[in-house]
Amino acid sequence: MNDKTGMDMTNPERRTSVLITGGNKGLGLETARRLAVQGWKIFLGSRDEGRGRAAADKLAADGADVVLVPLDVTSDESVAGAVRLVREHTDRLDVLINNAGAPGRAVPPAEATAEEVHSVYDTNVYGPIRVTHAFLPLLRAAENPRVVMVSSGVGSFAVVTDPQQPASAMHELAYSSSKAALNMITVRYAQALPDIKFNVATPGEVANRKFAATDMNHHTGQLTVTEGTDSIVRLATLDADGPTGIFVDRLGPVAW
């Protein structure tokens, strides 16, 4: 398979397929646009169906082969419906990008409650597990299946414990711990399922202490959304002999 051309070389008529959660804006939408340009079939996951339709229509107007997939990663019923919809279009899924995320309210540790942390985990931790579990049969049917987890530099113990990193002074519990949990989950998937590549991407530049401008950070990041998707696209387009169980940003490996 040549994923960079978007075609399955064993079946030139079949496009490489990808499901992107949280695909209606920001990093998810830009990832969809970039992979569509490479000829991929895009399953655009969106919790808000109206916004998802607008995003899918915009991609289609630019020539993308895109299917809107209503998808709330916090709902078992919604995820099951997404699987049924994707199966109507394909018998396999080449790539799953677990991009949907919740920032939480940056509640200081002394004030954080279990309820506050749970609401963030429901999207950032349980969401990727729900979606990955549900789509495993379709992923296993692909020749070179890949799963990309979109994490953050604040999920790295090395980053958070470095006084030179802004994250070390970001005193909250929910978001950073959810991304650390997502990182561990990815490693455990990679170890247990060697036939599927499971990798972690952060949209920032850890060494340069930069992050991508998105709605989640009120567009205060120093990197463009395109630069932010470099690591995601790189992992999504890995060849069959590519790595699994790694954590990267657009510059290279990130310490766990």
What key phrases describe this protein's structure?
two-stranded antiparallel ribbon, alpha/beta, 256 residues, eight-stranded mixed beta sheet
SSE pattern, N- to C-terminal? EEEHEHEHEHHEHHEHHEE
Instruction: List unreliable stretches of 5+ residues.
Output: none
* Shape by Cα distribution: globular
Strand order of the largest sheet: 5-4-3-6-7-8-9-10
Distance between the termini: 31 Å
Largest sheet: 8 strands, mixed
Q: What structural class should be given to the helix and strand makeup?
A: alpha/beta
Q: For the CA atoms, what is the radius of gyration?
A: 17 Å
Account of the 3D structure:
The chain has 256 residues and is α/β, with parallel strands linked by helices. Helix content is 38%, strand content 16%. It has helices spanning 26-37, 49-61, 76-87, 114-124, 126-140, 157-160, 174-192, 225-228, 230-236; strands at 7-8, 11-15, 17-20, 41-46, 65-70, 95-98, 146-150, 197-201, 247-249, 252-253. The protein has an eight-stranded mixed β-sheet with strand order 5-4-3-6-7-8-9-10, sandwiched between helices. A hairpin with a 2-residue loop joins β1 and β2 (11-15). The protein is globular. The two termini are 31 Å apart. 48% of the residues are buried. The model has no long low-confidence stretch (mean pLDDT 92).
